[in-house]
Structures are given as C-alpha cells and as structure tokens.
Amino acid sequence: MTPVVSGGVQVDYASVRLIKKEVGERLSDLLRARPGMNAAAQEQQGRHLINEQVAVWSDAEAVKRGVATSPAEDAAIAQAVFDLQFRAGRLQQYLDNALVENIFINGFQDVWLDFTDGRRLRVAPVANSDEELRELLRDLARRTTGQAERSLSTADPFLALRLSDGSRLQAVIDVTPGTYVTIRRHSMRHADLPDLVERGMLDTTLEQFLRACVRAEKNVMVVGAQAAGKTTLLRALLKEIDPDERFATLETEYELFAHENGHHRQVVPMEARESNGEMVAGQAAGEITLMDLMYRALRMTLTRIVVGEVRGPEIAAMLQAMTNGAGGNLCTLHAIHPSVVFDRIAELYLLAQANMSEALAYRQAANGLHFIVFVSSIDETKIGGHRHRFVSHVLEVTGIGEGGRPETNTIFGPRQEWGEHRAVPLMHPRCINDLRRAGFDAVLLNDPAGAWSAPLPLLIDEGAGL
C-alpha cells in the first residue's frame, strides 16, 4: 500500500489503523475500569497510549528498515492515530483549514474541496476503501456530541450529522454507486453586520437599515438560492438582538450558533430530531419536526422566534407567529429570485395541510411579514474571477395587492443602469418612523449609490437584472 503524504511526511495508514485498533482496545479497558471519564481526560489518556504504541511501532520499523524512523514521521503517525481515534481521521486536515468551504466525497477515491475563493480542487482519498470510509462515518456518528448514535447501513442508508466544529455532514450509501458525502462548512459562525460590510455583502447604509429593522422588531425573511449566504446574514442579524432578550432558534441542525456566540444570554436553542427508523402506529418513532418545536416554542414566553430555514409545513406556524406575536421574528427561505418568494410560500402552505389555500398563504404573508431581504450571488470563478455574494434586494411588504397577492415596495435594489448589482437605496419604507425610533438616520436613503465607492467589479456585466 502506498503511504500517503500528510504535512510533507509520508504516513502509512495501514500502520495507523493497526495502532488505532490497539489504542482503542486499551482505552476501552481503561474506561471500563474508570467509568465516567470525561472527553478531555479520555483524549489525554489517548495521547499517552498513542505515544506508547507509536514508540513500539517505531522500534519495529527501525529493525525492518535498518534505519530509524524520523521524529517528524513518528509525530505524523501519532497525529494521524489521534485524528482517527478522536476526530475525523484524514478528513480532519480539511476541517481544520479555514479556507475550505465544502468537502465532497464521490466514492472513497474521489475527494474534492471547495475553497472560499471559489476554487474547486481534487485531493487525496480520505480512506482506502468504501468500507473504511463508512466505518469512519459511523465513528463520527457515535462521537457526535448531543446526538444519538446513528447507523449507516442497508436498512438506513442516510446519515445527517453536525460535526464538533458545527459543519453539516450528509452521507448516502446503497442508493448511490458508492459512499457519497457532502460536508458544508461554516466559515463565519459568529459574523456580525460589520463583518459582512468588510466582506462586501452589504454597505454601511444597508447595515444600519437592517440593524434598525431588527431593533424595531420587524418580521424579516432572508431569502436566496442555496449557498448564497442566507444563514450567514441571519447570524449577523441575530447579533442585533439585545443580549438579555429571550428568544428561540429552531433548526433541523444547529447552524445559527446563537447559544455559542458569547453575545446572547437568554437564547433557547431547539433542534429537530430524526426518526430512529421505526414506525409506530404509522408515525416515525422518535421524530421531532420543526413544526413540533414551533408549537412548543410558542408556549415559552419568548419575545421572538427564529427559524434557521423554513422548508415545510412549519411555514404556516411561522407566519401565524409573525401575525400574532409582538414582532421581530426572523427566518430564511430558499428561492431563486425575489419575484417568486410568495409563490414559494404558497407552495409550502399547500404542502402543509389539505385545507390550506394559496389565498390564505398570501394573506398571512401580507399580514405577517414586514421585510424580505434577498441574497444573490454571481460566480465568475470559471473565467478567472471571483464568487460574489451580496444582498441585492430589500422588499417592504405593504399589504394585499391586485389578485390577492402581497404587495411590496423595493426599498433597496440594484441599479442596472449604473452596472450596480448590489442593493442601493431606491425609496423610503412606509414604516420609516419606526426605524427612526430604533436609531436609523433616514437621510442615508437619499444617496442613490448608498455607501458603495464603485459598482460591483465583474468581468462580465450585461446589465441584466438579478
């Protein structure tokens, strides 16, 4: 078996697996003798056992080779064993790289990385067989903090996990030719609005406008296509909620991290739970949906409810909360263009219950929503450019319009005649006085270019709308 180069040193992963097996057995014996050992103590003991076993391996290799192993090789073997025992094995080097945005595995031999600058690069395999990759995934499932052990088998070929760094892992077997894995990273876990200004996602005028929307307790829906940056923007908006205000976050997997950002002291984080695979009386045993969480959250004396991503029947409960509550609720929704947002809401309503109607969806959206913030992206990496993510539209929902559809005003939008795709001020909202009471300077909306110093730098700009 060809050794794998890791950190400039060749690592024999066959040896790594053998050492890991020996260390695992010794650690299991130790845990039986000392039950209740916490994770930090287990890792400390693991380091000690690994160093002992690597020393044994090093002596045997020296005899076999006729020359001693180098300190760098011993250290690389020890780290590889530790990563396999306690972390994510060969995947860990990519999880530790802040520039890696996504990891794709299309069978054990085909591994790709997406970087934050838009590059996609093929890298070395993270396992030597599909079965080894599956065992790594099962180990990750067993070690995932706060989540029950989840199998990956013919009976249950899907696996969804939140890794220790907050990354989201989805794996599929059997219904695919091999083991397929996607890991989505969270490079800006604790972003705030100034961070997004620095990244070029919005300018300081829109920063102050969105800050006022949150502080004025406006109901805001962040919308955009997949990977446009909706969750990142929602995290930043949450930072504008008072640290002592009590609110809940409802998510299928924790991605907002409001309970870990060091800012909020009264957040109630709630996470949906998958079924254990069994069916009882026609219901998925153990399953807790976002809809279930929504009903419980409404009874917890909260000032706001935040849903990480609305994508099912919980849309009805979310808009009811927006209509009935004090305001300030936030959520995200997938849509490819601002013009289809209300159609997407209606689609989810019709999927929720048989007695729901398009007219009801429109009415509740008109009554419950105050603002829709649309996040766009333009990817020019294929022609040597960059991937740009930015807010392109802010729509104020003003009530029911013609045909029963919600009516909107475009408060911020692109100025195509200037080649500007990003959101710049177009008009004042009807609720401008509410925002002024929350500290917003309305004069900022009078500058048609906002605070941008120049249009979005694109290699190709046809002046087309977003």
TrEMBL record:
Residues 91-350 form the Bacterial type II secretion system protein E domain. Gene3D superfamilies: 3.30.450.380, P-loop containing nucleotide triphosphate hydrolases (3.40.50.300). GO terms for molecular function: ATP hydrolysis activity. It comes from the Bacteria. Belongs to the GSP E family. This is ATP/GTP-binding protein.
